[in-house]
Amino acid sequence: MKKSRTFSFKYLLMDIVRISAIPAFLYFRPKRLYLGKKEKGIFKGGVLVVSNHISIYDPLHLMFSIPSRRHHAIMAEEFCNTKFKKFFYVTCGKCILISRNNFGIKSYKTIVNHLTKGELVTIYPEGKVNKEDNSVKTFKSGCVMMANGANVNIVPIYMKPKAHWYSRIIHVVGEPIDLKKYITSGDKLSMEDMERVAKDLTDIENKMKELAFNYKNK
């Protein structure tokens, strides 16, 4: 399957947005902490980034944190309820719209197709913006099914809630999750295996949360 090129007219508007965001990138000075060892190349090729969901600006903050990659953030279609939002997030930002109440095989294939082409896809397995006292809700196993369908690693990220809009961006990056290590029988992940991965991802998020809040911002 044809992979994404460094330059493509398809991503022209997205790249313009990324370039125009450089001043904001310099202002917010994204700080990446690591849970475990810092690995090179974990964001290369097809990768599914899973993260907690703290605001509608999460896709932009992750773009600041991983500026070297184009991002395809999964977004609830009911959020893009105006022409401007659809233009900005879908036409320019190349977000992938899905229905929370009717997630079907078409949406699944679209996401797997992006991953298989070597692209970076971001998903928020909590399901919706979580403002409950900085807690991390249990991750849903659907994200594991997508990564498994494309045979790519999952990279967990924890985004520390900002005290103010102008606060520095603090993200914690976990080690990549190789789904093959979770297979308990045969050569494929079972539903039980996927649930176990989702539980481990939630536990990892909580560990990264602790690291983020213990970090003394400089």
Order of helices and strands: HHEEHEHEHEHEEH
What structural class do helix, strand and pairing data support? alpha/beta
Overall pLDDT level: 89
| Bulk shape | globular
Description:
The chain has 218 residues and is of the alpha/beta class. The protein has a single domain, classed as Glycerol-3-phosphate (1)-acyltransferase. The protein is 36% helix and 15% strand. The chain is built from 7 helices and 7 strands. β3, α4 (83-92) and β4 form a beta-alpha-beta unit. The termini are far apart. The model has no long low-confidence stretch (mean pLDDT 89).
Question: How would the blueprint of this fold be written?
Answer:
Layout: H1 12-20, H2 22-28, E1 31-34, E2 47-51, H3 58-65, E3 71-76, H4 83-92, E4 96-98, H5 105-116, E5 120-123, H6 142-150, E6 153-159, E7 170-173, H7 191-214
Parallel strand pairs: 1-7, 2-5, 2-6, 3-4, 3-5
Antiparallel strand pairs: 6-7
Helix pairs in contact: 5-6, 6-7
